[in-house]
Amino acid sequence: GRSWWISVTCAHAADDATRLSVELEFVQCLANPNYLNFLAQRNFFEDEAFLNYLSYLQYFRQPEYAKFIRYPHCLHFLELLQDPIFRSKLADKSFCSMIENQQLLHWLFYTRARTSEPAAAPHK
What we know:
Layout (H helix, E strand, L loop, with lengths): L2 H27 L3 H9 L6 H9 L6 H4 L6 H8 L3 H6 L3 H23 L9
């Protein structure tokens, strides 16, 4: 009697897992300033449906979804993409290059700060 319900439930779970996987991959692509430039130059940020999709993807900022994120800059960019001024600046390659440089500097110095040994306390 319930085998059809179990089959339907399993199919929906697989669909949900696939959707989550695809959306996660897309959100993480947003950590790449060159990809953001690509989207801007092709007018994706002028498409109301695409902007609604970006708004929908804000659910990744919730802890139960954010735990799957490997590139946390994507969440910051996802938030910034809600701002029309930021979106318009992304069409400028030099703006995206500046963002990319800032990312690289952050990774370089943040990683170094986290992996370096704390300075030894002076002996008295």
